[in-house]
Specification:
CATH class of the largest domain: Alpha Beta
Bound molecules: uridine-5'-diphosphate
Radius of gyration: 19 Å
Strand content: 15-25%
CATH architecture of the largest domain: 3-Layer(aba) Sandwich
Distance between the termini: 38 Å
Number of strands: 13
Helix content: 40-55%
Number of helices: 10
Number of domains: 2
Length: about 325
């Protein structure tokens, strides 16, 4: 297939693009390189540098005749979204509306969209399945939920078939070590810990130690980015065959606390990783754990690389190399 990966120079997009190309697809990438990096681009891709907010430019690229779009271009820091909602409204909502409208103009029938566990908000029960109430507690999650609603309407009105992949906490780096680009100004736990271990920032701030969890810190379901890349490939194949839209959770179905991740990172990197405890981050739920039963059933997918040691070891390999 000819596939356009929007946001393909970014952290998750680069892993998805590499695996799609490995499986014999012709991959083109759109990225504005605001958070993505050229280091993540490979010689077998066609690369178009530009912004999804530039509608006429976007249409001119999308009209090149693609079979499917993978859309991962978004701002993703939940904490920042509570302080700068305008940025998230524009980049995530306006950006996606531009993509959807240009996809309609170009007549592309299939979209794989990066959704998020943040659409669910504070869990009413665990593990979280796809039927769980959707009441986001941060603005980032609100934008992802609104985009799922837009996709449902564009399916009904324009026949666009979509896969909404609700990632839990993406972490780790390419199992084969090919993706080398560091995230710029990361806010997520694992890259922040890696930056501290590598001496790029002074300490990890732990956002709250008074959650109703065993050690008081936030519990999340961490999913290895290579597992996510495999899920995108499986989702695209399923979509192309069944021509029916769907939404699935992608998680490891296991919870890890901030302190558990920290301990694994100290052990694997051999670095001390200083910490300080600060207050809770607004909009952060205490505990998120996925049920990925639907992804298993529909796509035959399950997490293979999402144990904490593989997540930390594949991340540290990349950060350590940059240090060297
Ligand atoms: N966290 C933290 N310090 C940081 C970043 C994250 O204590 O610098 C915690 C956060 O409160 C949550 C977990 O780590 O419990 C995962 O946060 P992240 O931002 O990676 O993902 P989120 O679950 O918010 O999407």
């Amino acid at each position: 297939m000819k596939i356009l990966v929007i946001g393909g120079a970014g952290y998750i997009g680069s892993h998805v693009a590499r695996m799609l190309a490995d499986k014999g697809n012709k991959v083109s990438i759109i990225d504005n390189l605001s958070t993505g990096t050229e280091e993540n681009l490979f010689a077998d891709y066609d690369f178009y540098k530009g912004d999804i907010l530039d509608y006429s430019w976007l249409v001119s690229i999308i009209k090149h005749g693609f079979d499917a779009i993978v859309h991962l271009a978004a701002a993703k820091a939940a904490g920042e979204s509570m302080i700068r909602p305008e940025k998230y409204a524009t980049q995530n909502l306006t950006g996606t509306i531009n993509i959807l409208n240009s996809v309609v103009e170009a007549g592309i029938p299939l979209i794989v969209f990066s959704s998020s566990a943040a659409i669910y908000g504070e869990p009413k029960y665990l593990p979280i399945d796809e039927a769980h109430p959707k009441e986001p507690t941060n603005f980032y999650g609100f934008t992802k939920l609104e985009i799922e609603h837009l996709l449902e309407w564009y399916d009904r009105l324009k026949g666009i078939k979509f896969a909404a992949l609700r990632y839990f906490n993406a972490a780790g780096y390419d199992i084969e070590g090919r993706i080398q680009g560091l995230e710029k100004n990361p806010a997520n736990l694992v890259p922040v810990i890696m930056e501290v271990a590598a001496g790029m920032r002074p300490r990890l701030e732990i956002f709250g130690t008074d959650y109703p969890t065993p050690d008081g810190t936030g519990v999340r379901d961490y999913i290895h980015v290579t597992d996510l890349a495999e899920a995108h490939c499986a989702a695209l194949s399923h979509l192309a065959e069944a021509r029916q839209s769907f939404a699935v959770n992608l998680g490891s179905e296991r919870g890890l606390s901030v302190l558990e991740i920290l301990q694994a990172a100290r052990r694997i990197t051999g670095r001390s990783i200083p910490v300080s405890t600060v207050g809770r981050r607004p909009g952060d739920p205490a505990k998120l754990i996925a049920s990925s039963a639907a992804a298993k059933r529909l796509l035959g997918w399950k997490a293979k690389y999402s144990d904490v040691d593989t997540i930390i070891a594949t991340s540290w390999r990349v950060y350590e190399k940059h240090l060297a």
